[in-house]
Structure formats: C-alpha cells, structure tokens
Amino acid sequence: MNIQDAIVQRVTDMPMLPVVVSRLLEIIGEENHSTSDVVRIVENDPSLTIKVLRVANSAAFFRGHPISTLNRAIGLLGEKMVADIAIGSCTLQVLNRPLKGYDSAFGELWDHSLCSAISSREITLMIQNGVSPDLAFTAGLLHDIGKAILSEFLEGNVEKLIELWDQKQVEDYLEAEKDIVGTNHSEVGYLVAQHWGLPKPLCAVIKHHHHPNLSDKEYIELTYMVHLGDIIAMMYGSGTGSDTMAYRIDPEYQKHVPISKQGLAVLFLTVQEKFTDTKSSILASEEV
Amino acid sequence: MFQTIIITDDSTTARMITKRCLEIAGFQNSSFLEAKNGEEALQMAKDNQVDLMVIDLNMPKMDGSSLLKRLKSSPRLNHIPVLVISSLVSEAKETELKEQGAFAALSKPITPAGLSKVLKSLSEQSTWG
Questions:
Q1: Which residues on chain B place their C-beta less than 8 Å from a C-beta of chain A?
Q2: Which domain, by its residues, includes B64?
Q3: In what order do the strands lie in the sheet with B82-86?
Q4: Helix-helix angle A200-208:A133-142, to 10 degrees
Q5: Three-class secondary structure assignment of chain B
Q6: What's the rounded Cα separation, in Å, for the pair A37 and A138?
Q7: For position B16, which CATH number holds?
Q8: Which of A54, A84, A190, A247 lies 20 to 30 angstroms, CA to CA, from A39?
Q9: Closest Cα to residue A271, out of A112, A128, A145?
Q10: Is the Cα dihedral A78, A83, A86, A87 positive or negative?
Q11: Which of A191, A203, A257 lies closest to A227 in space, CA to CA?
C-alpha cells in the first residue's frame, strides 16, 4: 500500500462522531441558526449538560450556591459560553494530542485551534458582514483537523520539512508536506470532514484555509476569516510546532476582511483575554 | 543593526520559530547562524562578527547560563548583546540573567511583537549609549 492509500485508509478507519456532535455541527452550519439552538442541543444531551454544570460550579464561577439546573447555568455563564463549552469539549478529544510529525507537544494543536477559533469569531463580530460567529468559531476549531492524521505519516521528517521551507525550495509548509507524503494537511482534513459528513461551509474552510481565494464563492468570506484567524493565533505565539509561521498571508485578505492596523491591534488584545477565559472553562468542563 | 544573529537552541523547530519571528519582527535581511548547544554557539561567536545572540537556557553540553557567563567573561565577546529565551522566565530569573549580562529574557512562546519590543528598546539604548 502506498503512503497516500495508507492515509485514506487511516481516515476511513476513524470512528464517526457521536450523534450529538454531528447534530451540533449541523445546526451551526445552518444559516440563520441562533446560539439558543446550540443551547437546546445541550439541554437534550445529559453528558453536555453535566459538562456545563461542572463549569458553572467550578472555582472561577462558583457564587456560594451550587448550580444544579442548565437554566441557572446559562443565566450565570451566558448562552455564548455554554455554546463554546459544548463545541469546545466535543472537539477536545480529537484535537488534544501531540503531533510528533510537527514536533508539537501535547496540547499545542488544541490551543492553536481554540485560539484560531476565538480570533475568527472576533473578526466576524468586528466586521459584521453576516457570517455567523458560531460558524466562524467552529470552523476555526476544526481547520487543522488534517494534522491529527497527517502527523503520524510525517514522523521522522521534521528536519527535512524545515529545510525545504527554510531554503525556499517550497512556497509554504503545505508544499513541503506534499513533497514528503504526496498530500497536505488541508487535503487530509477535507477527507476527514467528508468522512464525518461535516456541513459544507466547514468542509470548504478546512480545505482552503491556507488558500482562501480558492474557496467556494458562497463561503469565501468565512474562509478568509479563518485564514486570518489562523495567522493571528500563530503571531500570538500559539502554533503547532515546525509549521508555525511557515505560511503566507493572502495579500487579498483586506478585500474580504476589511480590518485596519488599529483594528488588528484591538483584535490581538481581545483574543488574548478571551483565549484564557474560554480555555479554562472548557478544561473545567472536562474535569472529573 | 543586527546584521549577524546567532540563534542557539537544541530544538531545530524552536530555532526555526525564533528565526521566523525575527524575520517578521523586521530582521528579514539579517544573516542567521544556528547552534545546537552552548559550545557550538561560543565557537561561532569567536569565528564571526556577531551583532546579537538569542539563546535558550536548557541545552545539552553547555547550557544557556554557562554560555552567558563565558560570553560575558570574554573581553573579545562581552560586547555582544544576549537575549535569553526559556520555557518560563520568572521575574527573579530575569533579574538574575540581567545581572549575569543578558539585556533581556523572554518566556516561550516568543512572538514577533515581543521580540520587536525588546530589540527596539535595545537599539534605542545603543543609540543613546
């Protein structure tokens, strides 16, 4: 079996997502959904409800009286935080792993994904062009899912990958990955997205987040937002090892994501603050 | 300013990230030399005209603290500004490193903005000093 067939086989062998996660992602992919729709899914899933209650009763939020109902937890945390906990904890299991093929430690992929998710959402809130903030958050979380698979096939090649990029033999790290294994993490991520039956906008972002100009017209704004969110996360110091800052920013991004230099500075500060809060809430939801 | 920079870290990935951060921070025209440990870095500093050294603390053979001491005790090399980078630099550690001769110490992960800030302050000190 050649390496590309082995990668396809590895994707095919991946377990399907739990029903509640698929439903959650399906809702988020729908145009005009609201955060309340996400909360309704949490209400109907005991395991997600328990996670939210854990956060509401964690040291950071505890107000002297135990919170035992979801409604009270929503009152305390807000719908947006409840949605973040649901989406974040669902993806944590897949993304919270070391990437040996990228020389990236345990936790870095998830940190980078979460930081990109928050950056992407903050961009939607800043420019208000009709792209759903929840969708941008989720797309940001999942954009690098392909690395979770590709990493094992890149193991032992980190120095060669770095050399290819450093000596300018390739345009970016995607091309270096392709040189070594014949495919890249965007293409592998797209295979995973299809295997899981993810909604179309998420598939488009995963496939084109490094070359957003190639994305489907319908999802081009969303793809540009995650493209920028990804770069912001790396500039913030949250990368995934050897490919950190080894991609080019699309020079056309300002046409699709019109943010001034001053706006970017504000965005940096907002992301910094929200990343710490959201990360600790999602991790609190997982504590036993 | 900083025409030749030595980056010292035992991890290839960490050296590469430091180099990319420096390039984004405005030093894209600098020449970068890479060393895997203190011994290599010391030799490179002796063999080249060096304007800046960025060193990690935890390295095999000769660690960052030992390298810093060797550099600062050498009349030939003690003029080279040294920036220390490490996993977690407490205030006390930063003070200790500055007393040993480093001009600044940064915690990992480093960012282009963080590097730009400390290097700008160093270049201003040089201008006025």
A1: 11-13, 16-17, 19-21, 24, 108-114
A2: 4-128
A3: B31-35, B4-8, B52-56, B82-86, B104-107
A4: 50
A5: CCCEEEEECCCHHHHHHHHHHHHHHHHCCCEEEEECCHHHHHHHHHHCCCCEEEEECCCCCCCHHHHHHHHHCCCCCCCCCEEEEECCCCHHHHHHHHHCCCCEEEECCCCHHHHHHHHHHHHHHHHHC
A6: 15
A7: 3.40.50.2300
A8: A190
A9: A112
A10: negative
A11: A257
Q: State the average pLDDT for chain A.
A: 92
Task: Decide if A242 and B111 are in contact by the 8 Å CB cutoff.
Answer: no
Q: Which of A166, A235, A237 sits opposite B16 (nearest CB)?
A: A166
What pTM, to 2 d.p., does this model score?
A: 0.91
DSSP string, A177-191: HHHHHSS-HHHHHHH
Instruction: Using CA coordinates, name the residue in chain A closest to B13.
Output: A242
Q: Which residue has the tokens 């300013």?
A: B1
Would you say residue B129 has pLDDT above 50?
no
Distance separating alpha carbons of residues A104 and A191, to the nearest angstrom? 22
Would you state the pLDDT for residue A63?
79
CA angle B57, A96, A108 (to 5 degrees): 30
- Identity of the residue in A158, A241, A244 whose CB atom sits nearest the CB atom of B20: A244
For residue B127, what pLDDT is reported?
57
Distance CA B74, CA A31 (A): 67
Pick from B64, B57, B9, B1: which is nearest to B33 by CA? Answer: B9
Residues of chain A found within 8 Å of residue B16, distances taken between Cβ atoms: 162, 166, 242, 246
For the record, the structure tokens of A284 come out as 């609190």
CB B16 to CB A162 under 8 A?
Answer: yes
Q: Is the dihedral of CA B5, B10, B15, B18 positive or negative?
A: negative
Q: Are strands B104-107 and B82-86 parallel, antiparallel or unpaired?
A: parallel
Q: What is the architecture, at CATH level 2, of domain A3-16+97-286?
A: Orthogonal Bundle (1.10)
Q: Which portions of chain A are predicted below pLDDT 70?
A: 288
As a whole number of angstroms, the distance between CA A186 and CA A139 comes to 13
* pLDDT tens digits, B22-37: 999 999 999 999 999 9
Cβ atoms within 10 A of the Cβ of A189, count? 27
Question: Any idea where the domains of chain A sit in the sequence?
Answer: 3-16+97-286
